[in-house]
Amino acid sequence: MSGVRFTKGHGTQNDFVLVPDLDGAITLTRDQVVLLADRRAGIGGDGVIRIVPTTLASEPAVREQAAAATWFMDYSNADGSVAEMCGNGTRVFAAYLRREGLETQDEFGIATRAGVRSVKVTGEQYAVDLGPWHVVDPDGARERGFGATVRARGGVELPALLLDLGNPHTVVILPPEIGLDDLDLTEPPAVSPHPEYGTNVEFVTPISQGHIAMRVHERGVGETRSCGTGAAAAALATRWWEGESADNTEWVVDVPGGRLTVTALPDQHVELAGPAVLVADGTVTLLD
Length: 288
What we know:
Layout: E1 4-11, E2 14-20, H1 30-37, E3 47-53, H2 60-63, E4 71-77, H3 87-99, E5 107-111, E6 117-122, E7 125-132, E8 134-135, H4 138-144, E9 148-151, E10 157-164, E11 168-173, E12 190-192, E13 200-208, E14 211-218, E15 222-224, H5 228-242, E16 250-255, E17 258-265, E18 269-275, E19 277-284
Parallel strand pairs: 2-3, 4-5, 11-13, 14-16
Antiparallel strand pairs: 1-2, 1-19, 3-4, 5-6, 6-7, 7-18, 8-10, 9-10, 9-12, 10-11, 13-14, 14-15, 16-17, 17-18
């Protein structure tokens, strides 16, 4: 496969290789995804996104979204595994559609494996309704005060909360004696019980009311500079631990790659807002 076009973009330094496939003619193998995401032998990124008309998606459940979303974000992690969706990736995907004139409105839908995600563009900011979320086993979590335990490399075992935002998250609020910068995330944190399909793991330090800092180890990638759904999960878990009476519905989330805003919406939805930057275009040769 020669001369495949690509665009490199990032959202708070969570970076992606976008491959436009406007006629549905490209099938990326797992090895090709890994090559594209390779930071030494390929283009380099935390994930790879194929841009394809929703009507041409291979998955029937995705094609059913065509009435609400013209374009499908076919997302794969850097290790080649297929993922449901990606919050930062959705914003970068939206920025590409706008630049190319494939979407001209300030509000539009994007098809994902987790369902349609609505995007609203205001200047250089892209706000995405990440859809419905829930705490996994909320009754059990309330009874124990947590839903799982997590141990980072060389660290102690800490309580964590499991959340589903269309993809899986496990959130740890760090005690004051453990600094966010002191964590060793070079290996996947040990989660018990471990979700069947893996999980993203977020470590959070509260800064002030409605303001937190976060580091994340992403499923199928490793530590990344940012994770959009992870930022939302971190904010929602913080609010859950504060209790049902928590008044705040908006959080500032600082990640190594920048700053995001998370807003709790009515009907158990959550919105992620932040920048999206397209940094390079080119072609790449991929072996079949």
